[in-house]
């Protein structure tokens, strides 16, 4: 994360009433005046408690940015989470609030000192679960020390380095843009080397609504391996919040390569259709037949767009996601069944609540593994009769009324709606290079996003970063 340091007087942050004991200046790091070792309790100005923050990290940075000119700094002390593991409170304390504890009972030859003096100041960053924003509260606003220059606080020193990097990076970007907008520079500069192909669509206000990008390395790979591709959206790649459709190809030897990238304003069928037509034009320009199989998640808008553009292409739905969706429905039902059985057969063995919960989780895990084995018998049945036999057996195994919702879900959502997209009796006739899940597509997401380091860049910086990753990946293949 790139941090921009802003002083309170620059943004007009209101402060609570407090006593500013001295004007802090880093040049005044040393003084000949004697400072009392234990000054009386005092208060420093506090940041406003009104603002809301998107993350606890942003709140932490804002508080320390405010505190620096007033001679103090805050560090994280501890945190609390909800029962579901969601962070809800981060307790902050003065960085002078630590208590020095020696690690040896032996008398030290060299006398050491510490700035920690058990300062009682304490405040918290708390999550508002309704608005999903963070706010500040103060528990104890007193300090037992005098203000000190920012250079004496490690937290403030860490905040300054990203600011220097941010300034240098900003200057280099401005020089590169030379008065152009990032999108203008993207369209003018990146195609100059002949490495990129861009196609885009604009709305009535001339805003880009869909941007299709294809790299020269992608063309080289696609020319030899056009048969099986996968599509999946990833997020948090750019400052505009645009979803990125990542299109990935597979080779018969098990390698993965990027076919194309597309930034889209929404995930509607019309938008997907625009991007897929651009992909079809790339196939046409290379004289290639359209892909034999496309692997994706069960996203209706994307699947309908594929059917519209690539009419003869087989569509396969990620089997891993199917299993995960079934598991989310099944595990609560398995837990309910086990809980009912427990009530009917009360154990004489004394157990604590923690032991009972642990045993329940283990029993649910075992029950899910057994259910998954039965489900796999259905998925991988090699004939229609074997499929029907497996499905009948599965229904008999889970004939308890408590499992009626999961049986209904499997039948309506998968077996009746799209059996040809994942059942082996259908996919065995497709060319899919043994790919049945989008996990390698998600690995391809990671390969690109690792190069970004930030999700707040414009599309020019994003594609420049992606180009480095694509070139390295192509060299490795």
Structure explained in plain terms:
The chain is α+β, with helices and mostly antiparallel strands. The protein folds into 3 domains: 8-26 and 37-99 and 113-174, no CATH class; 183-317 and 440-476, Ribonuclease H-like superfamily/Ribonuclease H (Nucleotidyltransferase, domain 5), CATH 3.30.420; 319-427, no CATH class. It has helices at 8-11, 56-67, 154-177, 182-189, 216-224, 269-285, 300-309, 319-344, 353-379, 384-397, 404-415, 424-427, 439-452, 459-476; strands at residues 42-43, 74-81, 87-94, 122-128, 133-140, 142-143, 196-202, 208-215, 228-234, 244-250, 256-264, 293-296, 314-317. The protein has a 7-stranded mixed beta sheet with strand order 7-8-11-10-9-12-13, sandwiched between helices. Strands 2-3-4-5 form a 4-stranded antiparallel beta sheet, with helices on one face. α4 (182-189) runs parallel beside α14, α9 (353-379) runs antiparallel to α10 (384-397) and α13 (439-452) packs across α14. The longest helix has 27 residues, at 353-379. Pfam families: MULE (PF10551).
Mean model confidence by pLDDT: 84
Strand content: 15-25%
| CATH topology descriptor of the largest domain | Nucleotidyltransferase, domain 5
Major beta sheet summary: 7 strands, mixed
Instruction: Give the helix proportion (percent range).
Output: 40-55%
CATH class of the largest domain: Alpha Beta
Distance between the termini: 32 Å
Number of β-strand runs: 13
InterPro entries: MULE_transposase_dom
Domain MULE transposase: 228-325
Protein name: MULE transposase domain-containing protein
What are the main properties of this structure?
477 residues, disordered N terminus, flat, Nucleotidyltransferase, domain 5, 4-stranded antiparallel β-sheet, MULE transposase domain-containing protein, 17% strand, MULE_transposase_dom, alpha+beta
């Amino acid at each position: 994360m790139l941090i921009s340091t802003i002083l309170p007087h620059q943004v007009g942050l209101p402060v609570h009433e407090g006593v500013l004991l001295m004007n802090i200046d880093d040049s005044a790091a040393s003084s000949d005046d004697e400072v009392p070792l234990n000054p009386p309790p005092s208060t420093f100005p506090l940041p406003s408690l009104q603002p809301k923050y998107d993350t606890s990290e942003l709140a932490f940075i804002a508080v320390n940015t405010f505190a620096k000119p007033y001679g103090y700094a805050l560090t994280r002390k501890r945190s609390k989470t909800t029962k579901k593991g969601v962070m809800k409170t981060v307790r902050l304390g003065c960085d002078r609030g630590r208590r020095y504890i020696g690690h040896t009972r032996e008398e030290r030859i060299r006398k050491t000192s510490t700035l920690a003096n058990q300062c009682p100041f304490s405040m918290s960053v708390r999550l508002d679960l309704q608005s999903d924003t963070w706010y500040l509260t103060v528990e104890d606003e007193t300090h037992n020390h005098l203000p000190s220059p920012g250079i004496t606080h490690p937290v403030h020193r860490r905040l300054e380095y990203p600011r220097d990097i941010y300034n240098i990076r900003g200057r280099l970007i401005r020089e590169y843009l030379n008065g152009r907008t990032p999108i203008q520079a993207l369209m003018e500069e990146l195609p100059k080397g002949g490495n990129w192909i861009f196609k885009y669509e604009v709305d009535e206000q001339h805003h880009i609504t869909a941007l299709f990008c294809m790299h020269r390395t992608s063309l080289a790979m696609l020319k030899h391996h056009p048969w099986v591709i996968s599509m999946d959206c990833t997020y948090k790649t750019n400052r505009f919040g645009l979803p990125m459709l990542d299109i990935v190809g597979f080779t018969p030897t098990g390698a993965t390569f990027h076919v194309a990238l597309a930034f889209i304003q929404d995930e509607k069928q019309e938008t997907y259709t625009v991007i897929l037509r651009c992909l079809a034009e790339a196939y046409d320009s290379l004289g290639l037949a359209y892909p034999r199989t496309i692997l994706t998640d069960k996203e209706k808008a994307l699947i309908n767009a594929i059917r519209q553009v690539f009419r003869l292409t087989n569509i396969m739905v990620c089997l891993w996601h199917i299993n995960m969706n079934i598991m989310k429905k099944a595990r609560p039902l398995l837990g309910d069944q086990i809980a009912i059985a427990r009530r009917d057969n009360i154990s004489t063995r004394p157990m604590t609540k923690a032991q009972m919960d642990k045993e329940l989780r283990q029993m649910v895990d075992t029950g899910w593994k057994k259910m998954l084995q039965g489900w796999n018998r259905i998925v991988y049945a090699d004939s229609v009769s074997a499929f029907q036999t497996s499905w009948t057996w599965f229904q008999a195994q889970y004939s308890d009324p408590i499992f009626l919702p999961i049986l209904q879900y499997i039948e309506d959502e998968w077996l009746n709606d799209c059996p040809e997209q994942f059942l082996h009796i259908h996919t065995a006739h497709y060319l899919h290079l043994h790919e049945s899940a989008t996990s390698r597509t998600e690995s391809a997401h990671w390969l690109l996003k690792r190069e970004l380091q930030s999700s707040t860049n414009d599309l020019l910086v994003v594609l420049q970063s992606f180009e480095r990753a694509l070139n390295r990946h192509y060299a490795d293949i």
